[in-house]
Design brief:
Keywords: Cytoplasm, Lyase, Schiff base. With about 220 residues, the protein is α/β, with parallel strands linked by helices. The protein has one domain: TIM Barrel (Alpha-Beta Barrel), CATH 3.20.20.70. It has nine helices and eight strands. Helix 5 runs parallel beside helix 6.
Length: about 220
Amino acid sequence: MLTSSAIDHTLLKQDATLKQVDQLCIEAVEHKFATVCIQPCHVKYVADKYSVRVCTVIGFPLGATTTQTKIDECQQALNDGAHDIDMVINIGKVKDGDFPYVQNEIEQLAKLVHSSGENKILKVIIETCLLNENEKKKLCQIVGDAGADFIKTSTGFSTGGATLDDIKLLRQYSPNNVQVKASGGIRDSNFARELIQAGATRLGTSSGIALMKDIPSTSAY
């Protein structure tokens, strides 16, 4: 069942203003969305001002920063009050077949996130539109082995977003302790419900309000 508590209410535009961030948070509180997903520069502002679960992005959107840079960025976000961390893997390392690098990076961030307090969550963005089927299957295993909480389809900044086929694949090949987050191109409630039915438990979308007319609200905080 699709509910408001399955939605990460998202604003990741490069030109997002504090006024827009304020509106996002007001909407999230009103509709009881799971989180607000915002850029790292806004985390402390939101955490200090609103009673809302804060999600932010690390290594976003390319994933090509160094592991140490991602660790430092993650630590700052946690210090500022983030609850959910959505990290982008290094896609080039996947294409090189350097899966130990990818797993090590996820492991380090998972350890950092989970040691920072209860109910802290790491989601791993694999950018499915850039991967072949074997790479996706391999990453399902790696994300689970590395101790992350979610595998996530997309940044929304590449060549494609969430698809039903990808959600089905990620759910089929991920271990039971790893949940699936769909993101990118989720703009109507019918597609959102199909993604949930296919195995997603969280949706990242900037169209949360548009979806709400068909979604019952449930408390997430």
